[in-house]
Design brief:
Length: 610
């Protein structure tokens, strides 16, 4: 095979053993890499019902066939496991040197299982695998951990680590690299912590083999040049995703006070222009020439990377209207290794619960120091923080009082930074995303604002699926960043050219869409297998707040979602995907996608229809 290395590295932490495991072209061509590999491995190898924080769970770090080549924004990896937050398939992506180094070390994925008896660092140097004592690192935050490891292994080593949140099994702990690039929202950091795995360090020295190396090199150089010519490039370089704060405010979709509103009085103070004035530097992922990690000095004088999601969730959603303060909370979250989107949700939830008298603790909106202290309690699971560390779904079940209606999650994963009182397509995208409510797979809201936000049209459903195919399926399997395409208009045709030069295969976008559908169907089957007879279409419905409590401010005052119309959209979504009215892929669909064996195994859990 060209493009792919054809090897996984399997690591058993219980036995302190590792071995390389060959896989063939069939796997590569059916699932590509990244999310595709992770979904296939977890479906095949995890028994339903296992404890996500037990040794039987497997943590997969998977790259794609373009990773490590000199191609724009191509140095991401997907980290996946059964999620402790949702109880089903979970993953996230990170732009990291680790992605490049895994490939240079000769592998396409690391698959980590078991549990080490004591805290360790997994060190992968080509074929040499070591399990290093991490007692000096355990208890440190992710920045300190990485800094200590970099002193030994150098600035381009792949280092992925967890902070105290992962060690303490906070259900939305993530994995951090390069001081603020983080991923694995559905508790991938907690899975790492449950295995006593403080960090993974990867150093590779090999070369990747492409089918047409000269062509690939030239294509890469052309592509980097092409990105620089795109009209939105200059503004993107200034603001990155931060420009979305102003856009969300203008369109009444900026999550505010736990998604009660879509506009925030102090939006300007936390927006892209405020950030551009305060910016001190920029960071980004390897192999990217449109880097978007904007760094500002926070209110404690430390450097903090800010982006739209973390500023919306730790700013407007908790009523905090000063950028340097928001940046301070973001920095603390990254140090502890807490996902900022879920964190902004649990904080907003706690503030509303306190306001309504459903918890004894006084938790006020918009307070820097008190909120910072609560974040510490979450990371260390102290007092109220212990309950919040379980996420909003659990917290709502615990405190009752009707709070489940405004616990903002889908399938247990907290919603990312877009209010959907008046955005039905985006609500559908959140509700049907493959890991719970995340915007990554189908960020349809910008398109939706242009075509008319109030309609529940078939066109909108089709657009959600189209985006899920491109972003959630193909880009996540190739482990390339979505921003060149979505933000700059870098054409999709580049990716089939890259794939041809790297792998030698003629793969069209039609083929890629089938692969994307296969991945989506397989992940859906994973969910259904976990939930069995408890699986219902209600799992694909966004929180009650958006249907029941209209916006009270801004131009969209009075807006809320219509449940009956949403249900029609959901039925159309299932129909277009070849899933039944419960949202379960039919036998025919699974057969068409080459997933006959999946159908056989799923039949043991639920009745399948044609
Ligand atoms: S655009 Fe931003 S997220 Fe994407 S690869 Fe570049 S730095 Fe990373």
């Amino acid at each position: 095979m060209y493009g792919w290395n054809g090897l996984f590295l399997r690591v058993d932490l219980s036995k302190s053993k590792a071995h390389a495991n060959k896989y063939g072209a069939e796997m590569a061509e059916a699932f590509l890499g990244g999310r595709g590999f992770a979904a296939k491995i977890l479906w095949d190898e995890l028994k339903p019902g296992i404890d996500p924080l037990g040794p039987k769970n497997k943590l997969v770090f998977a790259t794609g066939p373009l990773t490590g080549f000199a191609l724009p924004s191509s140095s991401k990896l997907v980290v996946a496991a059964k999620s402790p937050l949702t109880g089903s398939y979970g993953d996230g992506n990170l732009g990291t040197f680790a992605a490049v180094q895994i490939r240079k070390a000769g592998y396409d994925a690391l698959i980590v299982e078991g549990k080490s008896k004591k805290p360790i660092v997994l060190l992968v140097q080509d074929k040499q695998i070591e399990f290093l004592d991490a007692k000096d690192l355990w208890g440190l935050d992710s920045f300190e951990t990485e800094s200590m490891l970099r002193r030994v292994y150098g600035s381009t080593a792949g280092v992925l680590s967890i902070g105290q949140a992962g060690e303490n099994l906070v259900k939305f702990a993530n994995i951090v690299c390069q001081e603020g690039r983080a991923g694995g929202r559905p508790g991938m950091g907690a899975v790492m912590g449950s295995k006593n795995l403080k960090a993974v360090v990867v150093i590779g020295s090999g070369d990747l083999s492409a089918a047409y190396p000269k062509e690939l090199k030239e294509l890469g150089a052309d592509a980097y040049r092409e990105i620089l010519t795109k009209p939105p490039y200059a503004f993107w370089k200034q603001q990155g995703t931060m420009m979305t704060i102003e856009w969300s405010q203008e369109n009444s979709v900026l999550p505010t006070y736990n998604y009660r509103e879509g506009v925030f009085d102090k939006a300007d103070a936390i927006g892209g222009f405020a950030m551009a004035k305060a910016k001190v530097s920029q960071r980004g992922c390897p192999n990217c020439n449109m880097i978007c990690g904007n760094v500002v000095k926070d209110s404690f004088g430390k450097e903090a990377e800010v982006d739209y999601e973390n500023v919306a969730m730790l700013g407007s959603n908790i009523g905090l209207g000063q950028l340097r303060r928001v940046a301070a909370l973001n920095r603390v979250a990254d140090e502890f290794g807490l996902d900022t989107i879920s964190l902004g949700n649990v904080l907003g939830f706690a503030m509303e619960a306190s306001e309504k008298g459903l918890i004894e603790e006084k938790v006020s909106w918009g307070k820097l120091r008190a909120t910072k202290s609560l974040i510490e309690d979450i990371a260390y699971r102290r007092g109220l923080g212990d309950m919040l560390a379980e996420g909003v779904r659990f917290s709502a079940e615990k405190i009752g009082g009707g709070s489940s209606r405004w616990a903002m999650h889908v399938k247990g994963l907290e919603i990312s930074g877009y209010d959907c009182h008046a955005a039905p397509a985006m609500a559908l995208a959140f509700a049907t995303s493959s890991i719970g409510a995340h915007h990554k797979d189908a960020w349809v809201i910008s398109w939706e604002m242009k075509v008319g936000r109030n309609s529940y049209s078939e066109e909108k459903v089709d657009k959600v699926i189209e985006l899920q195919r491109i972003r959630g399926g193909v880009f996540e399997a190739l482990t390339v960043c979505r921003f060149p395409w979505i933000e700059l208009g870098f054409e999709l045709e580049w990716y089939t050219k890259f794939l041809h030069a790297a792998t030698g295969l003629e793969i069209t976008w039609k083929d890629l869409n089938v692969i994307a559908d296969r991945i989506y169907a397989l992940i859906r089957c994973f969910w259904v297998r976990e939930f069995g007879k408890n699986w219902t279409r209600q799992m694909d419905v966004p929180p009650a707040r958006w249907f029941e409590e209209p916006l009270t401010k801004g131009a969209l005052k009075g807006s809320k979602l219509d449940k009956a119309k949403y249900d029609v959209m959901l039925s159309r979504y299932y129909c277009q995907r070849g899933w039944d009215e419960r949202g379960i892929p039919t036998k025919t669909t699974l057969r068409k996608l080459g997933l006959e064996n999946v159908a056989k195994r799923l039949r043991k859990r639920v009745k399948l229809y044609d």
